[in-house]
Amino acid sequence: MQLRTPMSMAVHLAVACLFAAPALAQAQDTAGATDLDQVIVTANRTAVSVNDALAPVEVIDAEQIRASQARSLPDLLRGRAGISMSNQGGDGKLTTLFLRGAESDHVLVLVDGIRVGSATSGLTAFQDLPIEMIDRVEIVRGPRSSLYGADAIGGVIQVFTRRDKHAFAPRVRFDGGSNDTLGYGVGFGGGNDRGWFGADYQHTRTSGINACNGFFDPATFDGAGCFIALDSQPDRDGYEKDALSLRGGINLGEQWTLEGHALRNEGDNEFDGDFTDRAETVQQVIGGKVRWHPSDRVDVHLTAGRNVDSSDNFLGDTYLDFFSTHRDSATLQGDFGLAANQLVSVGLDWLNDSVESTTRYDEDERDNKAAFVQYQGKFGAQSLEASVRHDDNEQFGGHTTGGAAWGLVFADSWRVTAGYGSAFKAPTFNELYYPFFGNPNLRPEDSETWELGVAYLGNGFNVHLDTFSTDVDDLIAFDAAINLPNNVEKARMQGAELSADTALADWTINGAISFLDTENRRGFYEGNDLARRAKNSARLDVDRAFGDFRVGLTAVGEGSRYDDVANTRRLGGYGTLDLRAEYALTRDLTLQARVANVFDRDYETVAFYNQPGREWFLTLRYAPMD
How many CA atoms lie within 13 A of 548 on its CB side? Predict the structure, then answer.
């Protein structure tokens, strides 16, 4: 894989850091680093140890989420390995995520195994998934279409809601802070070997910030930003949300398990604009799972659910329109152990997307049927996996994808991995059927990715270096020749990610540095960088406990990027520092404090959209079993 000169220098630096790992490992305390038995299920649709996964992965568990004091899911994810984010004006505003440079709609998102996201825009409302109810986040970088089908070009992110399997206990939370932020939450849960249940409700509101500093001239349609007339809107743009989570499960004997979950977030979001300036949103996920486990070598489960992504749009108090998409899905999967360390998984997937809107679409429903098979095996120090999947879509027909990976452990603590994967992205309803804009003749976007990684997995010190190169064909972009979207572009994304975690003198340290090089390889903007992808990014989390007192920091930095495909509008790089502390008033009662953007940096991740300056937050949490 050939990298441009700046990328080559970055990789050389990363390799130097990687080979310093053994010396660092010998110098630090072995307690408290990443659990070597930590499990991830998203990478292979089966449970596998994080350090045995052949794909680059990251798991953010409940303890890390609570300790980070993140205010939202985008806040929790920003700056992590391979991730770059763009936000349009603060809390609750549209937030898009790029994974390894892949488009926002090239990243598959799951909530408790259920596919989520808008079928019209192709985007996932990360800002509307309530962080207070998230128990765990799993991130898989790289193509996964051979297991999950469309959308998994850049990777897969799966969110798991809380699971209560301890003695019954209530919990209460109050918080407040800058920009008139106020919130509270109540919940309860518990369980044992026979079953579990839980429920939580959260309310949060904030006056927000002035989302946009741009304008346009309605006479000439000239200007930039948020479609605000020349007199502008220098007002605060608030956000209010109410979230409810219900879940439970029961073991029906030794072989059968039944569980269900429901998550609903209702938001009221203000923003700047002369065409629309407020939206009432709903993000809802309902699902269930039946599992049959007759022996140690056979595991069969049926999963089904529905995601609702809807928005009622207003201009002031005047109702304008609404968009609502429903994604109904079901999966039947069987995992069969052929011998020790030899596993075959086979499965059937069904997905139905439908649209309800005041805007008329020529087609407002389509389904997708798929079958997949995967093999995973270990042979001494070597590991192999291979998968293939065929999708039959009502609109674009058949599509077959595949993937393979190999890993080798050597010198006890070192591992090298290599992989290949093909993937695809199905056109959205907007791209296909939106009035006067859609093109029903669009083909899926296709990609091929090659990966190479090396890792040092020490006792209390882990470091990973992963490199990748992805080529995407038939990229959908606006074609001036027909005044419609068309399959006219190609792109290449390549880069490297260096991540490490350790415990040093009672300090827990997690860090990641990502380097990205993108290029439009065909079309009018051939040779340009892809828009809104930061060329490099980094994140550092440091925490330490002093008895009942705990302190920590999060530093995030991102390099420059272009806001437009023409590469005429450049956004500078930025860095922010967040400080946090918490004190256990009693065993069950904790006071948390956080100052975000300590140095009050002024920056943009989307041109003309403001980002919050320095903010402070306080949280009082009563949680006996957390």
Answer: 9
